Amino acid sequence: MARCCQLLTIFLLWALLMLSWCEASRNIVNGYDHSYLRFKSDSLIKRRDDTTRLKRFVRASLRSPTPTTVSVSDFGAKGDGNTDDTEAFVNAWKKACSSNGDVNLLVPKGNTYLLKSIRLTGPCKSILTVQIFGALSASQKRSDYKDFSKWLTFDGVNSLTVDGGTTGTVDGNGETWWQSSCKRNKAKTCTTKAPTALTFYNSKNLRVNNLRVKNAQQIQISIEKCSNVQVSNVVVTAPADSPNTDGIHITNTQNIQVSKSFIGTGDDCISIESGSQNVKINDITCGPGHGISIGSLGDDNSKAFVSGVTVDGAKLSGTDNGVRIKTYPGGSGTASNIIFQNIQMDNVKNPIIIDQHYCDKSKCTEEKSAVQVKNVVYRNISGTSASDIAIKFDCSSDYPCQGIVLDKVNIRGGKASCSNANVIDKGAVLPQCKIT
Ligand SMILES: *[C@@H]1O[C@H](CO)[C@@H](O)[C@H](O)[C@H]1NC(C)=O
To answer: Most CB within 10 Å of its CB: which of 123, 161, 231, 285?
Structure first.
């Protein structure tokens, strides 16, 4: 039956294609006959219409009219907050991933599902929307995590949508993990790992919308090795003193937009790491947290590349940093073509900072090499500094920062401290690196 439909579709497609070709060539002939340019362009428009109609038809015939819904409750998930629902989720995933057409994998609203670490892998046959309308709650037993590095992972799933429907919550229950961090408890060693709450790995065409993520064990949302990603309307929260709970962590990812989101956490609101390109951040509210960061780049003498980052529209309040670029001494590579604009900062400790001497390890040695920072524009940034340094460019003497532009910057309450930075002031700038 399915085979017969496919054949029919292919035949119809071919017939339509032939028809549109004939039509188009006849129009072109008409165009030549009368030597009217208008005719030629009319036929071009007509041809485009035909193709659009054809595309719509093919899409409609290949995809089912209404998506199939696979609910985790059909696979025995209890959602009472106490029963381990991991197996039910894995089985529901298997079903949803192997079905044809558009599939919604539903996590019903009003329930709380207790989960161990899970890796949900693709590729999937279906075009999947995971509807997290209820709450996912992380197990607090260490033995429920395979290597202590991830809680929920989507791996190798293309065209995936995760929709929280504004009620959906992903809760890492991080407290027990935070207590054993050396950043909280100085008596502990700094080698203790903690899981990332939600990881998207190796996916093309990913959307994450309307989701709440909170109290992750460590990083809250991590997007790794993905391309064509849209994250919007997410709310990410954890206490200011929760260690390493980066809000949205982006690494090795190309063409990503993060917009209309609120992030208040214990580490960077958004961190952009090596291998990321064409990153757009719009309409972000951040605080508490460590601000919006590019880096750390070049740790352990590594080569790092980040380019094409635009942060356009952000409000940061009470954060440790505003917009930051941080690189480790001893690294190499470049961080380039970066724009920070239309940003409001209130009571931020380091509103604008480039730190090429960053180090949060026990010891970092003086090194000659550094990740080159170049072409960074700060435009229309205003607000107040919570420390007496509002602008800090602490660049490497061997690889000075190049092409730094300050354009309409007005940060009150602090001065500028600039070393080894090639800075151009455009528009009104306060404070300035050079005292004129
Ligand atoms: C400057 O940035 C603020 C946000 O901080 C925005 O409201 C304003 O419209 C921007 N001004 C211009 C001229 O773009």
So the answer is: 231
